[in-house]
Design a protein that fits this description.
Number of domains: 2
Largest sheet: 9 strands, mixed
Strand content: 15-25%
Shape: globular
Helix content: 25-40%
CATH architecture of the largest domain: Alpha-Beta Barrel
Bound molecules: zinc ion
Distance between the termini: 53 Å
Number of helices: 15
Length: 471
């Protein structure tokens, strides 16, 4: 659906349904719409009914009041940022000494044995902590790729956390089935049986997946990577995902070792392998793709296959510089991901936007990415990668997901001739407000949905226990 069609839908609904609640956002210094005309409105505002936007424009042109009014004087308002790749449980294993200085395969090998001691409580608390960090940094929709389920852990543990904190969530049911004895990378103790993986994935889709517009929760089918699951599981996952109309997600072409494994094991490039498995299309997105070759870029562009670009993680693990400029010129949908907290080790979305811009310039020159392009990748780009047309822009008919940054902070001083560029070029700020589906989730820099202090305290106790069990 285009934004215009969505607006017509909204108008139709309005005639029959009186909203339960309205919200007026007014007097934003600048409001970035990311709409078709990429308007940036001075003294801008929004009018919201329940969970969706019904009007966007200069404050003077909007209804004068509503049930809830947010005066955004002194603020920059943008669409909520979309995070397309994460492993939130890794917030428990940040900066571990054994994994500080390794590339992907060595890094994974030293962490699998720590992660083998995860518990359901740890999954729930680390998801809350990771989501809090994301929310405070401007992210309103996140995917999470959970692919390890020791000691009775389930994806349900993450889903409960997302509902509690109020984040729009794409929960990816990851999996690993090829252990060391079968030529895979993970230890045999952390892999699952393929029949059980598929059965649990089906249960999750049938229990939780919401295909409707403005869905707060979608389930994604997401075997972990070519070096930890079989061809069969990849193929059967694709069949299941298409049967239910849900998206597919995995890791692909992350570094040169990953590409070498693909040649050695499958006799193909990662992109050829993805095509062979049926893992291309608008309903598929792959994390990293740092080493995607020209034929792969052409394939992804032709099929609408998405990429989750994770610049901090790519630098941390020395994976290389993903050719994002070339991908976008070719027409590949690209979104941004913070990646897991053990390879970033931060989940600050504005920081990730900034690193995306800086890293493209290191690789491909000063015009490789502008500040506005970087923001577009983190909003509209992420929405497209997640196969959604109801988030990523502030326009009538879109979900009421937006965030506000206070421009009066020292970090913006001297840059207010262009607050939009300032958000990307200056040091990464935290939000003052975050609204998701019309609900205020962050107000004056504080989460409204939970008391964060005790959650972080518990998180750190669990992280210590996990670390101590492994050393
Ligand atoms: Zn990852």
């Amino acid at each position: 659906m285009t934004m215009e069609q969505a607006a017509q839908e909204t108008n139709k609904t309005n005639k029959t349904n009186k909203p339960n609640r309205t919200m007026l956002v007014k007097h934003a210094d600048v409001l970035v719409t990311m709409d078709g005309a990429r308007r940036e409105l001075r003294d801008g505002g929004l009018y919201i009914e329940d969970n969706r936007i019904v009007a966007v424009g200069p404050t003077a042109e909007l209804p004068p009041t509503a049930d809830e009014v947010l005066d955004m004087r002194g603020h920059l308002v943008i669409p909520g940022l979309v995070n397309t790749h994460h492993h939130m449980y890794q917030s428990l294993t940040r900066a571990l000494p054994a994994a500080q200085n390794a590339e992907l395969f060595g890094w994974l090998t030293s962490l699998y044995k720590v992660w083998a001691n995860l518990t359901p409580e740890m999954i729930g608390i680390s998801t809350l902590t990771a989501m809090a960090e994301l929310l405070l940094s401007g992210c309103t929709t996140s995917s999470d790729h959970l692919y390890i389920y020791p000691n009775g852990s389930r994806l349900d543990d993450s889903i409960v956390a997302a509902r509690r904190i109020g984040m729009r969530f794409h929960a990816a049911r990851g999996s690993m089935s090829v252990g060391r004895k079968d030529g895979g990378l993970p230890p045999d103790s952390v892999v699952e049986r393929e029949a059980e993986i598929l059965k649990d994935t089906q249960r999750l889709i049938e229990s939780y997946h919401d295909e409707g517009r403005y869905a707060m929760l979608r389930v994604v089918v997401a075997p972990c990577s070519p070096f930890s699951v079989s061809r069969d599981l990849m193929r059967e996952s694709a069949v299941m995902a298409r049967h239910y109309g849900v998206s597919l997600h995995t890791h692909l072409a992350e570094n040169t070792n990953d590409v070498a494994y693909s040649h050695e094991k499958f006799g193909m490039t990662p992109a050829q392998y993805a095509e062979d498995l049926g893992w291309v299309g608008r309903d598929v997105w792959h994390a990293h793709c740092v080493q995607l070759d020209d034929a792969g870029i052409e394939l992804f562009a032709r099929t609408g296959t998405g990429v989750a670009h994770c610049p901090c993680s790519n630098m941390r693990l020395a994976s290389g510089i993903a050719p994002i400029k070339r991908m976008r010129l070719a027409g590949v949908p690209v979104g941004l991901g913070v990646d897991g907290s053990a390879s970033n080790d931060g989940a600050q979305m504005v920081a990730e936007v900034r690193q995306a811009l800086l890293l493209q310039r290191v690789g491909f020159g000063p015009d490789a990415m502008t500040a506005r392009e970087a923001l577009e990748i983190a909003t509209l780009g992420g929405a497209k990668v997640l196969n959604r047309d109801d988030i990523g822009a502030l326009a009538p008919g879109m979900a009421a997901d937006f965030v506000a940054f206070d421009l009066r902070q020292p970090l913006f001083a001297g840059a207010l001739h262009d607050p939009v560029a300032a958000l990307v070029f200056c040091a990464p700020p935290q939000v003052s407000h975050s609204v998701i589906g019309g609900k205020v989730v962050v107000k004056d820099g504080q989460l409204t949905t939970l008391e964060l202090g005790p959650v972080i305290e518990r998180h750190n106790r669990l992280a210590k226990a996990l670390y101590e069990a492994a050393v």
